[in-house]
Amino acid sequence: MIEYLSYVLFFIVLMVFVIYLYIKWKYGFWFLQPVYHAYNINYMFYPPGIINHHLPQKNKYTNFKNIETFLYSEISSIKLNKFVNLIKYNYLQNKDNIFSPQLENINPYFQSHNSKSFISFYNEDNVMMDSKNNIVTDTKIIGIMTTRPVHIIINNGNKDAKFDAYYVDYLCVDKKFRKKGIAPQIIQTHHYNQSYLNKNIVVSLFKRENNLTGIVPLCVYSTYGFSVNKWSKPIHLDAMYKLLEINEQNFHFLSDFINLNNNKFDIIINTEYTNIIQLIKTKNIFVYVIIVNDKIVCAYFYRKTCIHYDKNMEVLSCFASINDCQDNIFIRGFKISFWKTAADNYFGFAAIENISHNNIIINNLLLKNKPIIISPTAYFFYNFAYNTFKPQNVLIIN
């Protein structure tokens, strides 16, 4: 009997060891990171919030030889232009999409924050010959990553939480240098440098589309893409309803409405209001509200994506909405505000993220429209573990 039990114990230990090796092989870099792994059963019942309270340590992925981290506000115009050129040709590019931002579509996202924003460059020496056949060494940027601050509020009864995090954007490696382990080095080194440069923020937030990782997401949903060529001009709202575009002068009405409706969501993630105003002023995001009796009853948030689908149709993304009125009014308000934004700014394709109250809009559109694209999308935390939220209970404005 004892011999039999020893065999069983040996088999169990062997299986655990094999599973451990498989997970380590499958997830590689992410296996070592402070994230909520799908195999971490303990976090399922007792999510700890912040995982690692200490400053990060150097490891095999930190690369201080090739990677430099800067305050975004302090980088030179030369580096800024190199950054823009890199993402133009290497970020969000496939046979259907063309991503073509200008500097004025990027800079406003890093302006008017109360905390520092960062950018990291992966540099590699580029040896060339000049016109006199002399060897000249130039620095070539082959990878980048940016982070900018966001505020996070979790509404969960006795487990409410309020903290700041860094939103990760433009994680990009030159196409010619991919599959060489550069992206993990950028993430690890950026996180290390950022943690020492700003010790007040220890959590990061990633957004991932298409292929999702083995990390338990903050939320997971689909993004729907529709061609609007055949959409007909919507009927106007009744006289009692007023559609208003938000600008710098009337923004305080929107901020009051957001604050009043925070309790409709389990988690709210937003950038500094001064940053949102900057994005509105530069026409990188557009916000419309419906007003009844001097009271806002719903809001729609659109983003200029700088993505052209099928070459000539720029995508306008509805990335969030808040509804505090009847669904039929809310849906019609979306159609009118989308039509107006698209017509005034030459957008020809709609992307709607099935998050916040956008599910009401999407369910209505699907009755008569077939999406051209359905893309899985997820947000996940870095150095923070919390159970997944339903997307309709998540509001993200950044």
From TrEMBL:
Any one Gene Ontology MF annotation carried by this entry is: glycylpeptide N-tetradecanoyltransferase activity
Enzyme Commission no: 2.3.1.97
The record, for Gene3D superfamilies, names: 3.40.630.170
Q: What are the Glycylpeptide N-tetradecanoyltransferase N-terminal domain coordinates in residue numbering? A: 77-189
Among its keywords, does the record have Transmembrane helix?
yes
Residues spanning the signal sequence: none
Tell me which UniProt keywords the record has, alphabetically. Acyltransferase, Membrane, Transferase, Transmembrane, Transmembrane helix
A Pfam family reported for this protein in Swiss-Prot or TrEMBL: NMT
Name the enzyme's class.
transferase
Annotated family: Belongs to the NMT family.
- Name by which UniProt lists this protein: glycylpeptide N-tetradecanoyltransferase
